[in-house]
Amino acid sequence: MTKIKESPRFLAVEVLDRVISQQAYSNLQLNQVLQRAHLSVADRHLLTKIVYGVLQHQLTLDYWLQDFIGHKRLASWVRVLLWSALYQYRYLDRIPAYAVTDESIQIAKLKGNAGTRRLVTGILHAFLRQGPKTVATIQDPVERLSVASSVPRWLVDNLIQDYDKETASQMLTAFNQPAHISVRVNMARTTVKGAITSLKEDGVTAHPSPLAAFGLVITQGPLLQSHAFQDGLVTIQDESAQLAVESMKLLPGMKVLDACAAPGGKTTQIAERLQASKGGVVTALDLHQNKINLIRTNAQRLGVADRVVARQMDSRQVGTHFADESFDAILVDAPCSGIGLLRRKPEIRYAKTLADSRHLHQIQLAILNAVASKLKKGGIMTYSTCTLLKRENEGTVEAFLETHPDFQLIKTRSVRGVKDDRAAATLTILPSDEGTDGFFISSLRRIR
Does residue 329 contact residue 254 with C-beta atoms inside 8 Å? Predict the structure, then answer.
């Protein structure tokens, strides 16, 4: 039985049960298990695949399972065990069904009792005989999209309302595609060409991002073990997220406020473009001291600590700490529902609600209102989020402008002119565009 407890399938059930029943973060739970478990490379890959695969397809898996459990009440771990088996049957073609079945039954026996083992055995054998019911039989087209993509109905409804059914459908498909790894080249220490060369020396293959001017897409190799990463030549950051700072058009001597800074990816990106000798500095704010420490650690690793001042502060309280017109530029990368990150953090889709989005809109607006007077006349305040819900994006910008006639919305432009032919002033990157995270950027100039 000890061997079963150390298997990737058993560990996957343990991780998933904590994530789903306790709303723990999947990446943190998975990393903790990977650090302490003695798994081969193949088993580490299988564990990761099962955890993220089940989270991505949870609604679909539950739809398939329902016919086989009827009105039975299942313990959370039993449901998770069954989901993980169904996921492996339907999505992992190279794993034989008998291997999944046998080990799932052993896990049921170990974690439960004889009755649990019989229940799991019967359900899995019945599923293998009958197969899953098709989602095509669902009459309601929105419900059908929700189950097929494993995205809650409220979110499907909102995406259709905000965009259109075809665009929403493309995004829903993209949410369940594997996320690739991208990095930002630290221009304070190297060049794009130099970073590619350094990575190659350590067996890491990378090519320039089609979106971000200083971004690289990693296609294979041990990135975290490379000298380029450990020495701060590159740092992990999604391509679309890099565009927010790109659009700010910073100059070396600017004083910049990063109002919602943790964990510091954009803070250090800003700092790379500043020079301490010319008075350039970025003030980074966050509510929590542990995150302030993380910002400082990241700044130190990337060699830009002399241009970063990190302070524990609620950005809505800046009025008592900074004089008006203290900053040449401001970035508000606001707290949001994170819908653009679903392929990396699949559990977000089940944890967030429509009420959360409405509440976040109010917080976003409060932050913009608080920091607006701290921007110099002629300066630009960049407002960005990693969500795709227009309530938190265009809706927040419009609400801010209604009460701030001293600001005007100008067209957001990136170094490579991403989507420059669009009609809108704001820039939205959809996950279905280039396979990146979804991201929103707007540029607000203070005109008086």
Answer: yes
Residue type, 135: V
Give first-to-last CA distance, the chain, whole Å: 72
The CATH number for 68's domain is 1.10.940.10
Half-sphere exposure of 56 (CA within 13 A, CB side): 21
pLDDT of 408 reads: 98
Q: Which helix (H) or strand (E) holds 156?
A: helix 153-162
Instruction: Give 306's Cβ-side CA count (13 Å radius).
Output: 9
Q: Over range 334-356, report the average pLDDT.
A: 94
**What is the torsion angle, in degrees rounded to the nearest 10, for the CA atoms of residue 199, residue 201, residue 204 and residue 205?**
90
CB distance 107 to 44 below 8 Å: no
Co-location of 146 and 222 in the same domain: no
- What is the token pair recorded at 101? 């079945």
Residue 43 predicted with pLDDT over 70:
yes
Domain that holds residue 78: 2-133
Torsion of CA 28, 33, 35, 36, to 10 degrees: 140
Question: Looking at the annotation, which residues are catalytic?
Answer: 386
What does the buried/exposed string (b/e) look like for 2-21 if buried means 16 or more CB atoms within 10 Å of the residue's CB?
A: eeeeebbbbbbbbbbbbbbe
In whole angstroms, what is the distance from residue 8 CA to residue 98 CA? 16
**CB 331 within 8 Å of CB 244:** yes
pLDDT of residue 2 exceeding 70, the answer is no
- CA separation, residue 423 to residues 159, 255, 395 (Å): 20, 31, 17
What is the model's pTM? Answer: 0.94
Q: What's the structural domain count of the chain?
A: 4
